[in-house]
Amino acid sequence: MNIRQRSLLLIFVMSITSSYGAEITENSLLKLAKKSNPTLAEIEASFLDSSVRADELSDKFGYEAYAGYNNEQTKEKSTISFQPIFRSVNQYKLGVRKSTKYGVLIDLNTSIDARSGDSESGSDYKDLHTTVYELGFQFDLWKDFMGRISKNQFDNLYDLKAKDELQKEISAYAFESNVRKLYWTIVANNEKLEIMKRLNKTAKNQAADAVKRKRSSVADKAEVARFKSLVHQRKGQLLSLEYEREMLFKNLRELFPNLNGQELKLGKYNLNKAFFEVLSCSAKIESTKEVPFESTKYDDITKILNRVKNRQGKIDSTYDDVDLKFALTLKKVGVSSDAKSTSYTEGSYQGSLDDIDENDRSAMSAGIMLTVPFGESKGSTATIKEKLTEKRFEASIDSMDAKVSSSHTQVQKSVKLLSQVIKEQKSNSTQFDIRLKEMNKQYRQARIPEYVLIQDQDALLQSDLNVIDTQLMIVNTILDYLAVFNEYDCAFNRKSL
Question: Which of 121, 160, 262, 322 has the most CB atoms within 10 Å of its CB?
Fold first, then answer.
């Protein structure tokens, strides 16, 4: 196989590998988090309810067209000979009405009444038309006066819609934070794997060296067996970490189903840079004395909930109020009923319209309707509703305020303590490393038994693993903080790209 053929084969193999593999980096996962996935779809669906209810109420205050038709036919006989019996009646109505959020209903309509009939005395009536133009108003003078209920309901639903939009953003960012936490857990696992691979290699070299020492009669069977046992121990620890990595990849595939069927591989990362950003962010948080409400959307939500609570209290207080409504109707009427002879009368639709133009048949009607609730049950229900609203909103508001305040205060203390823990752990590892080098010399000089050396190796291993675990705890603590204060200005606060 020549060089050209080998190159083509290599390109082919690489293309197949890339089509079935996915390199995991923090940026690539954040890009996936921004795209459609089952978790975000559930978040989106859970916040559509308030949007639908707000739109339904808005539709209620929109314009509404209506139309009606009624037909009557009769064969009844008149009890008085000259009284007409209208045997065919056709009635039409067409109108537009609009409710407003200020307790006012406006109704503009036109109606036509066309009828024909006769009387026992021999008179005939054909197509007698009555056309009416009507403009009606209904005003709520007490319970919903100036929109005390309607406008407050309208404003509340749109505020709740805005609140849910904010919560959707918070939930989406919390999802991104969880994805980042999973990524850094994978990175921590990889760091542990690198440590364990080095120790596994060291254990193999020590076992081989022990075999040589036994041949030279410097070591015995027990020492060789102990180092061979250590090889199996390190291999088991390595396999355990590899299993942990596969479980982490499984969690990643569950979050992003499009990764299923692909071989996942951790991409390059700069741990020192990332941890420097974490420490810089934690130092800035520690120096921020007051809670940075401007960096969180929870503060906006509590303001909205306070407004909604106040409006809902006003709505609840009207539950047992009297209801007083005033109705006003203005009409223009046109009648077409022309006597063609003493026994025959005829009309037309056009004639009724002409009558409206030529004659003033305007009319007005006004009325008041009062509804008064009585009994103790409504009053007690109103009191319970007011208390329920107060407690329900207070619980949500207090919970959010506590979450925001405690997140800032607790993270300040936690990060400071964890930073001190890392400092001590790294110092511990440094001292163990110095001791281990000395123990290696003493072991080679046969001044100490092998189990002392292995104990020191295990102690250094545990110290190094503890450093990684504590670093991961700090990363997760900062990510939890940024899930609440998602607008906080620090380098580690990387949103979806």
Answer: 160
